[in-house]
């Protein structure tokens, strides 16, 4: 009996290496978004990432090609983001009720948004709410104040193409991961 099979390497949701060497980033009103990567985890140290985010990073597999865990990595303090300046290393789940698929998708949603507010939904039911026009108007000054040349990495200037829409009928539910909120109790222990 002969069996023909194709083996593929395991694809991790959080990559060990970044293609091109530089991570993608998007800055909106001082909020710095980037995909979670192992190099970022090493730079930040695992303790600052939180147990839930680390469990997802270590044990979740992508549900579709191109999926990324996008995080709010830091906030560049400014009047437009008062109250949010201490936030860091939190996963971004939605923007204006649209589930985030990857950093390029987030940039596309920001660019095409016509709503009055930008409402970022983060892990653990945190919300960041900003008036869209004020956020857009203040971003160039924030970049200047912090000596940042561009609000996004060069790879995010290309148009967004949703490659997962072709296969997305099966993957309608993008919520969750193998690690559920109920699996992590108040002591931060993972029940596996």
TrEMBL record:
Keywords: Hydrolase, Protease, Serine protease. The keyword Hydrolase applies. Transmembrane segments: none annotated. It comes from Picea sitchensis (Sitka spruce). GO terms for biological process: proteolysis. This is Protease Do-like PDZ domain-containing protein. InterPro entries: DEGP_PDZ (IPR041517), DEGP_PDZ_sf (IPR046449). One of its GO terms (molecular function) is serine-type endopeptidase activity. Gene3D superfamilies: 3.20.190.20. Residues 14-155 form the Protease Do-like PDZ domain. The keyword Transcription does not apply.
